[in-house]
Write a structure and sequence with these properties.
The complex is a heterotrimer of chains A (424), B (128) and C (574). With 424 residues, chain A is α+β, with helices and mostly antiparallel strands. Chain A is built from eleven helices and seven strands. In chain A, strands 1, 2, 5 and 6 form a four-stranded antiparallel sheet that branches. Chain A has a three-stranded antiparallel sheet with strand order 4-3-7, with no helix packed on it. In chain A, strand 3 (198-206) and strand 4 form a beta hairpin. In chain A, helix 1 (25-60) runs antiparallel to helix 10 (355-387), helix 1 packs parallel to helix 11 (397-421) and helix 3 runs antiparallel to helix 11 (397-421). Chain A starts with 24 loop residues before the first helix and ends with a helix. In chain B, helix 1 runs antiparallel to helix 2. Chain B is elongated, with a radius of gyration of 26 Å. With 574 residues, chain C is mostly helical. Chain C has a single domain, classed as Cytochrome c oxidase-like, subunit I domain (Cytochrome C Oxidase, Chain A, Up-down Bundle). Classes of the chains: A alpha+beta (424), B mainly alpha (128), C mainly alpha (574). Chains in contact: A-B, A-C, B-C. Chains A and B meet through helix 1, helix 3 and helix 11 of A and helix 1, helix 2 and helix 3 of B.
Chain lengths: 424, 128, 574
Amino acid sequence: MSDAGHDDHGHGDQSPFIQHHYDDAQHQFDSGKFGIWIFLAQEVLFFSALFVAYVLYRVHHGEIYSYAHKWLDVKYGAINTAVLIFSSLTAAWAVRAAQKNQKTLLIACLATTIACACGFLCIKYIEYSHKIHEHILFGRYFDPCVSPGGEELLTRKNMCPGSKGSVIWDAGSDKPTEGCFEASKLDLDTKLAGVQADCEVQIVKVDEKGKEQPGGTPVTNQCPDELLTILNGSEAGTGKELVKEAAPKFPCWRPAYQPQVCPDLTTPEQRNHGAGMKSQVGILVEFGDHEEREGIKIKAKCKDASAPKPMDALALSHEKPTEHVGERAIKPVHHISTHEEHEIESLGPPPEHTSMFLTIYFAMTGLHGVHVLVGIFVFIWLLIRAVKGQFTPDYFGPIDFAALYWHIVDLIWIFLFPLLYLIH
Amino acid sequence: MADHADHHDDHDENEISHVASVKTLVGTGGTLLFLTILTVLATKIDFGANINLAIAMVIAVTKATLVILFFMHLRYDRLFHTVVFVSAICAASLFVGFTLMDSSQYQHTNIWTPSEPPAAPIGPRPTG
Amino acid sequence: MATTEAFPESLKSLPQAPVTEPDFLHVSKGWKSWAFTLDHKRIGMMYLFGILFSLLLGGSFALLLRTELWSPGRTIVGPDTYNQFFTLHGAVMVFLVIIPGIPAALGNIIMPIQLGAPDVAFPRLNLASFYLWVSGAILLVLTIPFGGLDTGWTLYTPYSLETHTAVMVATMGVFLLGFSSIFTGLNFLVTIHKFRPQGMGWFQLPLNIWAIYGTAIMQVLATPVLGITVLLLTVERFAHIGIFDPTMGGDPVLFQHFFWFYSHPAVYIMIIPGMGVISELISTYARKPIFGYRFVAYSSLSLALLSFLVWGHHMFVSGQSRLANMVFSALTFTVGIPSAIKVFNWVATLYKGDIRLKTGMLYGLSFLLLFTIGGLTGLFLGILSVDVHLHDTYFVVAHFHYVMMGSTLVAFLGALHHWWPKFTGRMYNESLGRTCAIGVFIGFNTTFLPQFVMGARGMPRRYWDYDPQYQIFHQISTIGAFILGISLFIVVCYLMASFWTGAKAARNPWGGSSLEWQAPTPPTLYNFEKPPIVHELYNYDDLVEVAPDRWERLSDAPEYQGAVPVASGSKEHH
């Protein structure tokens, strides 16, 4: 056990990477294997807190999950899952190749694993950049421009690409207001039911401090009724389809209606089913493209605004919900399944605290992505060592252990994918 | 050289550890990809929220088990490594379970208005 | 003068067996040989110096806050500064001293030798752990110039999200310290499994190693949760993700669940290595095997497992549900059982033992009393109805100081004095050692006993100002704190001085029976110059004190056959 007389210079056949305090290659491998399993155990615990948060919010605020998961593209998630599974296969094969002294195969497997991992991160980049663009973000930065159903939403910060939201207009006066007011039907097909608008709309420049510059460009065109159908039918906000149609003159304005959940006066039942909801109305200026515009603000003054008529719940129940895009199901006569209800709800604005889903999404996939990145660096290091021929059948521990780490990364994604992307 | 109490090799004397066969690797990889397609397809049919979740989790756990047993060699490895991994899962489950037990008992926030004070869980209504 | 009847002159002058290799302290020179060392003993010594420095730093904050509490209202500083004092005192002591203390410093130096191994399993990871500790320590100390920290060491939300102090610097430091702890635990687990010599099965392991094993399990399973918790806190502060912020749908009590899921096992990470040390001290200085060895070994393991089940007892008044409160309270009662088993076994070991009151033993005996008090008061706090009154009072402060300081720190000091000759090769001044051990005991009790009383009478913790009825308790407590502080300072001084003025230590100055006492003093680079012989555990039968502070095992050193041991109770020669 001691080292006096211990021959720690390898015999001709022993790898030079066997360290002095180990008896032999088997001892070093067994110790390393045990060590990496302990490390994987702590990785499980490292992610566990995020799973706790996920479970807690899903159990207690399931509506957030049902609504917000549709912002995630299942296609990308599934491709990522397949890519990661394949990379797991190549990592496991790399271990086999090292054990069997198949140097070329080992290098090929390591390189493929790295390539797959990079592919995973590229798809992640695509997903994240779409969300950043549309302000579908976590916490304080949650200000989505489009609902999961594709409807344009009125946002707090007026930073959506291709359109700019504006003043909140209190029907019944010509003064803008910040508050919530009563309106119980949402109809975005053409114009707001019962809301006529005669507005003077201006685009005003603002400097960095938010101070308005004098003089503004008036927007005289009101967007045609067909515009919304086009927008709703296509991928929201790309603008490409618009160009193909008989192009309306851009920029144009339209009343935009965002039923806003006013938390102080609604019960959860009302929130979920739309009765008695308070709403905000504003003016949206459409620019017909997908560009971000900084430094401008929309100002509008509206006349002859007539209040939206509160809809008779009975009258509503005769209408099939699917004919009214974005309508909340209010005790309809025929039974709608939860699935359809959710489909309809996804066309409306987000329920309260939907940002929490995005927080959990970004936290879990972000942490996972960091682990993928670290894995890439580890595998590049292994690739270099493999090219130098440092791995032999009695010394391949680093490949085995890194592959185990990589499998845990895959394992975590195997759970993240259904939990985040495949919610019903 | 000293013999270590925990150190035994029940495989081929020349092998440091078990070598996975190509059949096992490709078979596992293929099954995993198949299960991925399955889980995506399963979302097309709605069985109700809880059953949907259960199906997704069963498939996920199956995939995870395949990865752990075959890609990670736990099937051929010493039992203690399984103990290590399972204890981590147990600790994490404990964490989720107890926290959920606590938060499940939380009641909705009651907004206090003087005319309608919220009911106390036990005892008479508070006045004023 | 020692009376050694019939001690042959020839044997008296027999020198220790010469060691041909240089010891680990002298085998290489220069700062790089220390900064890039892979030797667990050097790494452990570097940890030790860092930890002792942190002890003095954290202790200074303690003396400052105790000075402020001398009188109600402002004594030396205002309330905001006072908040920073107790926060930094707590954070430095918990994360830099008590959690790493025994495992990282003494575990690293001694455990592999006690195991009969040439090194830990992963020496490079060991060095990485050390540098993670250093980086974390630097960040934690950097909070001071960057705005301080006033959230309490527990960093509770929502205040920790809103305060303008340097929370992110502190949380990043804690993150690094967490990984230092995880990697140390990982290293020790693999070492204990894979590096035991022939003849040392699991139930021939010294109890110190069982304790380190139990600790390592907790380090590996619990600390990652601390890592993710402080990471989430950092991200929440920086990017406002909303996970703990109720205005964005988050839950501040969730932070407490996350925090205490780690921090409860953490307190067992703090105490169990201390218990392991006490087993060694009691056994060696009473010259008896530990009574109920298997029970003590199993209790280390069961504490490691049970510690994960009780974290909610820190949250009884946080808004946690009644159901959870009751469940956690009931489980907390079970966690007292393994600790009590250990105390009974140690006391039974002392019974009819041949007790030598060396400095290490004085600390060991202190531990027995102080841990009993600390553990029992912990049980009081675990009773739900009692905790509703005592939570956030000085009763809690006194309880955890009895277990963290009166037990863990005392065990740390005992371990330091017990193994100091082995890894430094020097003897410290025994009279000073014993005096300071008594000084620590008196100072400690003077500081913290009154705190039980005032806590039970309602004095809240972390308060800068208080009702004048508590002043007398605060004043006694402050006086005690200074006695304690001075004693600790003197301890550090005479230990450092021993490098220059201490007598050269024998291979086995205390007559210990475990393998580290067979290594040269100080050990060689790979610990042993000839393979150690595994004897029956805790067998003191053939260990004789052939000269003052020099013991030999007759079966290993037959040249001492026929020697009559130095009579016990002889005066020291220093």
